[in-house]
Design brief:
Number of domains: 1
Distance between the termini: 43 Å
Strand content: 15-25%
Largest sheet: 5 strands, mixed
Structural class: alpha+beta
Strand order of the largest sheet: 2-3-1-4-5
Helix content: 40-55%
CATH superfamily: Reverse transcriptase/Diguanylate cyclase domain
CATH class: Alpha Beta
């Protein structure tokens, strides 16, 4: 092999993104375990995980006012202003309308660098860590691709 051959990058994510992912795992593992428990106890109903960040605004307090009593809000990382919401018994269309309302509110309050991703979970067949990593990966990719002000959604079925 030629010594001057171009090497492909080995790592896909930066150190800060990996550390954020690990922090999200610590914060979200138990709540999603509880969602799985509740889900298995009753009929399966989908839930949605939303990751949202915004600058120049008190994001967590706005989300607290906008969410339903059954939605779980987590202030994940203050430095990157990231919050997560687990919306119980919600499909992606309902979560999308919720996110649209939040984005309108944030824009009206002059928030900047708004990023929002959603992942609908329709089954308990996925390991919890896989759900969390797929959800945070979607958020990290949205930021890398500069999908500012958009709602990016995925479904695990």
């Amino acid at each position: 092999m030629n010594d001057k051959a171009v090497r492909r990058p080995i790592l896909r994510f930066k150190e800060s993104e990996i550390k954020l992912s690990l922090h999200v795992m610590d914060q979200m593992q138990k709540p999603i375990e509880l969602m799985y428990y509740l889900w298995k106890r009753e009929n399966e109903n989908p839930f949605v995980i939303i990751f949202i960040s915004a600058e120049d605004i008190e994001l967590e307090s706005i989300l607290e006012k906008e969410k339903r009593d059954t939605d779980l809000l987590f202030g994940i990382d203050k430095s990157c202003k990231l919050c997560a919401i687990i919306c119980q018994e919600t499909k992606v269309d309902g979560a999308y309308r919720f996110a649209e309302r939040i984005l309108r509110t944030l824009k009206a309050e002059n928030a900047n660098k708004i990023y929002c991703t959603q992942m609908e979970i329709r089954t308990t067949r996925y390991e919890i860590k896989d759900i969390i990593f797929k959800a945070i990966e979607s958020y990290i990719i949205a930021k890398k691709e500069n999908k500012e002000g958009e709602i990016i959604f995925k479904t695990l079925s």
